[in-house]
Amino acid sequence: MNGEELTEQETALYDRQIRVWGADAQRRLIKSHILVYGMKGTVAEFCKNIVLAGVGSVTLVDDREVTEEALSANFLILPDENLYHGKTLAEVCCDSLKEFNPMVHVSVEKGDISTFGVEFFGKFDAVVISCCSLAKKKLINQKRQKLPKRVAFYTVDCRGCCGEIFVDLKDYKYSKKKLEETVECQLEFPSFEDTISVPWKALPKRVSKLYFAMRVIEQFEDAEGRNPGETSIADLPGVLKLRKELCETNSVNESKIPDALLERLLIGTSEYPPVCAIIGGILGQEVIKAISGKGDPLKNFFFFDAMDGKGLIEDISEPKPVS
Amino acid sequence: MSSEEQLSAIKGAKVLMVGAGGIGCELLKTLALSGFQDIHIIDMDTIEVSNLNRQFLFRQSHVGQSKAKVARDVVLRFRPNISITPYHANVKESRFNVDFYKEFDVVLNGLDNLDARRHVNRLCLAADVPLVESGTTGFLGQVTVHLKGKTECYECQPKPAPKTYPVCTITSTPSKFVHCIVWAKDLLFAKLFGDKNLENDLNVRSSDATNLSEHSEDVFECRKGEDIEQYGRRIYDHVFGHNIEVALSNEETWKNRNRPRPIYSKDVFPDKLTKENGKTEKGSATDDVSAMASLGLKNPQDIWSLAENSRVFYESLRLFFLKRQKEIGNLTFDKDDQLAVEFVTAAANIRASSFGIPLHSLFEAKGIAGNIVHAVATTNAIIAGLIVIEAIKILKKDSNSYRMTYCLEHPSKKLLLMPVEPYEPNKSCYVCSETPLSLEVNTHHSKLRDFVEKIVKAKLGMNFPVIMSGASIIYEIGEDLEEDMVAIYAANLERALSELPSPVISGTVLTIEDLQQEFSCRINIKHREEFDEEREPDGMLLSGWVEAPVDKNNNKSIGNGESTSSVLSMEEIQEGEKDVEIQETSESAENVTGKKRKLSEVSKGTIPDHSGLPDESSRNQNQLEKLDVDDEDDELIISNDWESLTKKKRL
């Protein structure tokens, strides 16, 4: 870490947060580059948070056009057709994000992310993807696995009043404060594909039902060739059928994934702003921690359900062999 | 969550937000996105640069403007068809009375000080309007829900009182850097630059009562023909040299403590100073006046040496006299006053050096002296989301689902966001349960003025009190009082309690009301002759008043000002946890809930599985002991340590 000082402007602007994570962490943030895919409400919140935090650059990817629905939970889009006409979601969001912190370089990358090469991902310190099909998630995660450089990988999805974050930091070394000392730690994160391949039966009894429910719907969309989030209550019978199959394959009881939960996730395909704020906040904190290399990262799933108000972490990984 | 019922409840709701800062910006945005259409927002502050790292509705170009107004303008840009009414005003103003609050369906607080929170709490109780409270510090935060008669009010639970230090620790025996800061800020800075008529404890109290006060009044005044350098050296030598020598002469003090060493300017700077100042002054705008700039010290995160600190001390002193002469005699410490911060940092560091206490950077010193709350956008965003969720539950009158939610930095039993059911009102809460208080006081010595300042205003948090003894009003503060009444009250203030026209003696019951807060409280007076000067410096003892757990040596004489976040400490979160219903096991069985009960009845089979304790590694907090928890069976097996943890019971 070279000894570049923070400028006077940076010190003044970031004073309050430097008191939280220190000047060193702030310097690392200033040098970092984040790639973001899928500009829905939750991701808009996340981008706002990291831009305020003062990352080096944020690159947005989302070629979709601005629609009514996009306006509903995304405060980066002003409802003025003259402003957004002819622009993509990424472009409109980019304009707004720049205003939050002129010191952050915000830009747009066009094109189909599945075609971007491995070297492209290598330009970034963290990649955050949302509104992504199962196939794409796996693909992007794999591409960045191939990089020698460690690129933090996150997926985030909100359905109705529930939200999910997945974290993959590969082999991650970091430091944290324990009492008065600084302690060095290391964690190994499984890849996305490895994680979701963990047989359900092998997981602890009390793993959040939301984990399984999200996997069922994810696979349903995949099987039916749907765009992410394009489901409705009419799909319930199909989803229940898939649940039955998956539970049988995994030798677990169907009661692990209640009907009511699946219903809620299917109905609520539009985003719920309070949940966007919460998930976007948690995700922001995680990316900041990973870039600065300080503080326990979340391993490896985070779930929030506004119904019970719990925000919990699940470690979905191969159970360690008993020695 | 998009049922018709919910949408219409939101659409038709009238919401009051108090505070348009860190939480306020996030909250206003989320409310607007969630479909709220009639929002009122009160905030008395204007926008500063240090806000911009998290109060994202504000831009550099907005600095100096009203937060409430700018927040409204910016949010209207992405939700043009809703109504947002801003008030650039202090929430304590009389126009925000009970009738004002009654118009709202719910009140949402995003405040940064205890005083305002208590005030809003009382008005919400009086108006019977639900209140959602919140606070954040760094990565920690919480959201709490308050409904009159159904849950605790905001004041049912003790809130940490601002930290205070015994006078002698500050004047004679500092052991921590913060003691040096308080000395530098509230004593030295105040003495040199503040109101000279104010009492000041600057001089060390020596055991022999040789009264130095006469002599030292002269010390701090500039002498005729003295130039700034001579003056500076004299002050330096007096406070860092002479005063320390005097303190050292009192052997008793240092029996079990490390002796400080006196520091004299000739030892640090044998040569003349003016030669060493390097840069010449450029321009004379007050804003740019800075000792650091003048001395070429660039990095506020550096820890300066004793010599550098001493240079800053002289240079800031010199610059105050040279460039800001007019303000001297009127200044109070302001964390945004760069020169003041430099002076206080330097003075505190020199003193620290004398006492063998580690030195700190300007950045750190500023944080301590200015009670700066460290803050980030993400926590505020999370808390705002949680506030809106509770607000919607309140509008739907979904009372079984109300939750207090804690946002933790380190997960507790997998939870980063921990919801807990609210508690019933505290029957001993003098605010919402009208329990009378008791006051022990020497009614012959203590004046009404002391009672009004220290008890009614400070402890009870009233702004416009009316104090009655039986049917007669002995004192009131208000607008539109008649002149002769004002005179009578002024005279009353100077009288001892027992000598008031309506004498206040042992057995008297005083009724104190704040008509604006619509809050009334009774105090039973008990006469007591003696009070311990060290432990009860106010000469009055109020009981039945729910106070934060007190440190052994808490004199309450000198404080460092208030920390503005009021986030519950981990201790308090842990106390919240103890009220989870627990299945009886062979070991413990004792139901530690005591008198407090959760709002809903928790039956045996439905123990909430968020019944864990926070991790011990939490940043700002004390060490906590872990409970043994058996995951599989939803039971808590309570170790013997539980008893010691529950000692600090809430009433």
UniProtKB/TrEMBL annotation, chain A:
The UniProt record lists the keyword Aminoacyl-tRNA synthetase: no
Molecular function as annotated in GO: SUMO activating enzyme activity
Residue ranges the record marks as coiled coil: none
Keyword Nucleus: yes
InterPro entries per record: ThiF/MoeB/HesA, ThiF_NAD_FAD-bd, Ubiquitin-activating_enz, UBQ/SUMO-activ_enz_E1-like
Single GO cellular component term: cytoplasm
Swiss-Prot/TrEMBL GO biological process terms: protein sumoylation
Domain of life: Eukaryota
UniProt keywords, alphabetically: Acetylation, Ligase, Nucleus, Ubl conjugation pathway
Pathway: Protein modification; protein sumoylation
Residue intervals of the THIF-type NAD/FAD binding fold domain: 14-310
Pfam families linked to this entry: ThiF (PF00899)
Localization per Swiss-Prot or TrEMBL: Nucleus
Family, per entry: Belongs to the ubiquitin-activating E1 family.
Subunit structure: Heterodimer of SAE1A or SAE1B and SAE2. The complex binds SUMO proteins via SAE2.
Protein name, UniProt field: Ubiquitin-like 1-activating enzyme E1A
Source species taxonomy: Eukaryota, Viridiplantae, Streptophyta, Embryophyta, Tracheophyta
Automatic annotation (TrEMBL), chain B:
Domain of life: Eukaryota
InterPro entries per record: ThiF/MoeB/HesA (IPR045886), ThiF_NAD_FAD-bd (IPR000594), UAE_UbL_dom (IPR028077), Ub-E1_IAD_1 (IPR042449), Ub_act_enz_dom_a_sf (IPR023318), Uba2 (IPR030661), UBA_E1_SCCH (IPR019572), Ubiquitin-activating_enz (IPR035985)
Domain Ubiquitin-activating enzyme SCCH residue range list: 326-366
Subcellular location: Nucleus
Alphabetical list of CDD domains matching this protein: Uba2_SUMO
Keyword line: ATP-binding, Metal-binding, Nucleotide-binding, Nucleus, Transferase, Ubl conjugation pathway, Zinc
Residue positions binding Zn(2+): 153, 156, 429, 432
Pathway: Protein modification; protein sumoylation
Region called Disordered, residue ranges: 552-633
One matching Pfam family: ThiF
Residue ranges constituting the THIF-type NAD/FAD binding fold domain according to the UniProt record: 4-429
Gene Ontology molecular functions: ATP binding; metal ion binding; SUMO activating enzyme activity; transferase activity
Active site (UniProt): 168 (glycyl thioester intermediate)
Residue numbers binding ATP: 19-24, 43, 51-54, 67, 112-117
Family listed: Belongs to the ubiquitin-activating E1 family.
Quaternary state and interactors: Heterodimer.
Official protein name in the record: SUMO-activating enzyme subunit
Annotated source species: Gossypium tomentosum
